[in-house]
Amino acid sequence: MTTGADFLQLDPAAAPPSGRASWLAARIHDAVLDGVVGVGDRLPPSRQLAAELGWSRGVVVEAYQRLTEQGLLTARSRAGTRVALVPAPLATPDAATPDAAPFTAAATTAPPAIDLGPGVPDLDRFPRAAWLRAEREVLTRSSVTALRYGDPAGDLGLRTALAGWLATHRGLRTTPEAVVIVSGVAQTLALTAHVLRRSGHRAIAVEDPGSRGARDELAYWGLRPVGVPVDDEGLRVDELEAGPARVVLTTPAHQYPTGVAMSPRRRTRLLGWAARTGGLVIEDDYDAEHRYDRTPTPALHPSAPESVLHTGSVSKALAPALRLGWAVVPAHLRAAFLEAKYASDICAPGLPQLVLERLIGNGAYDQHLRRARRHQRNRRDVLVAALNTAVAQVPGARISGVAAGLHLLVDLPGVDDVALARALLADGVVVDTLSRHRLAPGPGGLVLGYAARSPHQLRAAADAIARALAR
């Protein structure tokens, strides 16, 4: 069966002029989900549908391409564009993730119209087709041993692929033996906290402001977070040197939530502190792969591999639900770390590891990252332009952290950011507050994620922020 604009019940007048491709992709997605079109049904040629809608053909091509990348559609020269699968309906989340905004949809009777909670990629652009192809290859070619309990350190093939990928993209000089596959950075923190507690550590230095989720994770596993101020060069190492902790958690590539990249002189001083005291630096390589206006920030690990535990994940690159990450563990901690990993969950899920290994090996993972960066940069530009107008009325307001990442920070000195967030929630907009990520008191602000929202939603959110500030 072939569909058309009428059959899909498309009203081109309802589409926002600057977001037609997103609108069309969403309408086709909904039509498949509602059963209006089914698996195997053929969509109209892009030229035909564009003519029916009165739009340029490029808009339709972009919408089809997005749905093809998600695996919803297949496109072949003679067979045309057809529906490949029916997506599962999205469930409304019933709890916030560790770094999600505290004012979530669960606090209201209806889901918010726009959620700008940070740390979430555009899941509509998850490379479903590439993942499905790789998963089929894995299931076809792998032996039954792939279905058994695996190595606590993770699949050797994936660890080898990651060691090479980290060498190319982050400058790490490491081996597969040093890499441990974990269920995201959260598990790295949990396992490391357990190991440190058993070796006598009680305090851990954390950035202030810094990730509330990471801080809560460390505290849950028995370490006492000690705040170290952050300024425009990153972590204040002089304050670290004066404190009691001999372990520090830092996000040097893109500090959360300020977006600052640690300066070269701070990096040198931090590694000098670790060498002098026998200290440990836990390097959360947060958002290092998402950069737009600056050259890559080098990782700390290559300069001091026995003083730095490097960790990262695919949660922001692919999807948080995959629960796949890595830790590059110094040799003196490796046995205890693996013992804790085995006691925690025996091993990471096997099949997703094999799929990720294949995506790294065939270049699909890097291709997805390049596309995601272009997409996210456009979203960032839209939000920054809209916010420049929205916050112009606030003395001292500043938009920062825009050179990389999936979020930006709006500093709002003199503004009660909690009250502002509550006012925005009443207007259907979810935001995170800077004060929630502070240990010591400080100026307020908003931490705004932009990757998962359409340009139309981002402009609407900025308008809501302007109205709330005016009130």
TrEMBL record:
Pfam families in UniProt: Aminotran_1_2, GntR
PROSITE patterns cross-referenced by the UniProt entry: HTH_GNTR (PS50949)
Domain HTH gntR-type: 18-86
Gene3D superfamilies from the UniProt entry: Type I PLP-dependent aspartate aminotransferase-like (Major domain), Winged helix-like DNA-binding domain superfamily/Winged helix DNA-binding domain
Protein family membership: In the C-terminal section; belongs to the class-I pyridoxal-phosphate-dependent aminotransferase family.
PANTHER family in the record: HTH-TYPE TRANSCRIPTIONAL REGULATORY PROTEIN GABR
Name recorded for this polypeptide: PLP-dependent aminotransferase family protein
Organism name: Kineococcus gynurae
